[in-house]
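Chapter summary example.
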Amino acid sequence: MTESMSESQEVGDAEDEERQPLDARTKSLLMSGLVLVLLVALAAILPVPYVILRPGPTFNTLGEDAGKPVINVSGARTYPTQGGLNLTTVSEAGGPFGQVSLVEAFLGWLDSSTAVLPERLLFPAKVDTAQVEEQNSADFVDSQTQATTAALRYLNKPVVAVVLVNAVAPKGASAGSLKPGDVMAAIDGTTLGSAQQAAALISSKKPETVVVFSLVRNGKPVTAKVTTRKSTKDPKTSVVGIVVANGFQGKDIAVKYGLESVGGPSAGLMFSLGVVDKLTVGSLTAGKTIAGTGTIDDKGLVGPIGGVQQKVVGAHRDGATFFLTPTRNCLDAFRAAPKGLTLIRVETLSDAVAQLENVRKGKPTTPC
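The structure predicted for these 368 residues follows.
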């Protein structure tokens, strides 16, 4: 009995030793570790001032998007097409497009097809999503106008000068009344000859004045009434929340674009090629999937764009075997192009058509 009690006492003493409170040094180390973990976790989820660029979707200008033709030509005979003339895009996150965390930025740095750039390089001035979308919309409509003009001029089809609505501010006075792509024929009965004249007529009105716009929308005459507002820059000047520009349209041929989920000017070259393909006998692609990028002006000159490193990856991912590349983008495209994607250097619309003819005939193309 005595021995048993002695053993029990010894066990109790051992348990008491194990349950002794932590000393101050151990507590301090544990608290420091816990704080460090919390700080690391917090830093990982906090937003950082970077923009992430990734390969975006591609769209076949010869096909459809959301059940609508990407390019619809009326007023002239069109011909069957084959293959794909794919315009390429870049997907953006961060900056005006939402916040990115340190973890997202770090993972982007590890991905060779992704670019992580300081926000200030892409958006030096503080802008919100609405401003960026308005500018992208204006650039996109302008690229369509230039693409149509370049294509029709290449085909020796007549064009006429017009004044266009390139963008409408989502919360501006014209929202719901005017639309990007509207042709402005007259303001309060005054026939328009230039975008500068249109802007002067609008700004000369007193704020809270009803202005009557005579428009042509999708080939049909439309009348819209808009009440002017005070300019935030000059209270004595009126604005209606639109961007107007000088442009051209076909005299007899109308081209309508059905792609709405893309912005910016870089689809110009591929839009032009799509119009040319639809208006000419035979196929520019010979059934192949050909992607590309590049701005275009109304004379057919191809210009450089941003994000070509992501665009070549997206093009290859979606089945393209050739990529039409503006000359000034060649170096960056060459460094990023996946195996199996042939880069073709182009400087003009006519040059691009000639290069596609070489592809069809199996002849050498101009490399980057």
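To summarize the output: The longest helix spans residues 129-154.
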